[in-house]
Amino acid sequence: MAKNLKFKIKNSNSGMTYVELIVVLSIFSIMSAIGLFSYKEFQIKVDIKNLANDIALKFVQAQKESTTGKLPVLSMPSADPWKPSYGLLFTSDSPSAFLYFADLDQGKVFDGPYIPCPSNDPGNSVECLETITITKGNFVSDISIFIGATATEISEAHITFTRPDSGATLRCTGDSICAQIADGTTIIDFLQITISSPQGTSSLIKVYPSGRIQLN
Known about the structure:
Number of domains: 1
Largest sheet: 5 strands, antiparallel
Distance between the termini: 87 Å
Strand content: 25-35%
Structural class: alpha+beta
Order of helices and strands: HEEEEEEEHEEE
Radius of gyration: 29 Å
Strand order of the largest sheet: 3-2-1-6-7
CATH topology: minor pseudopilin epsh fold
Number of strands: 10
């Protein structure tokens, strides 16, 4: 006698259980958090690289304006005759900004005053032409000169370009080694500026006496 066999077929259209839904949502949340973290980290690196490029372009501007003989718009050179000379100043006292200046007395360093910058009074002798503010919490974390493989941290760096030479003059003030650099007894191989984000991402800008700018 044949037995009647009954098969229970599971409904394939039935929805997810509550536990399954919780598991899927948890996995989705974890993947979203990982993706968001990766994007933020990527954006921080992009911001630092863009900042390094902007600073490098400012060096190029100083080099170009000096070699082409551009005269300052609002400042009167005190050196006679004046060879067009422009430069950048980085100081540890103001890590969130740097200055673009005209070296009016051919002294190879920024003489100040720091304020106002730029000045709106034509005919003055204020060397500062522009204050460039570093945004998004990024900052200059280190300024060092390299003599061979030896790095020496300095508090203030002056980088100038003077016509007709396209090379960079590297000077510092406020440190014991600066006088040796100024009188030529110590030769700098290159100047290194480190810019960093609050999260610790950093980029290096190297300036060589030849005028070459290198980004790392």
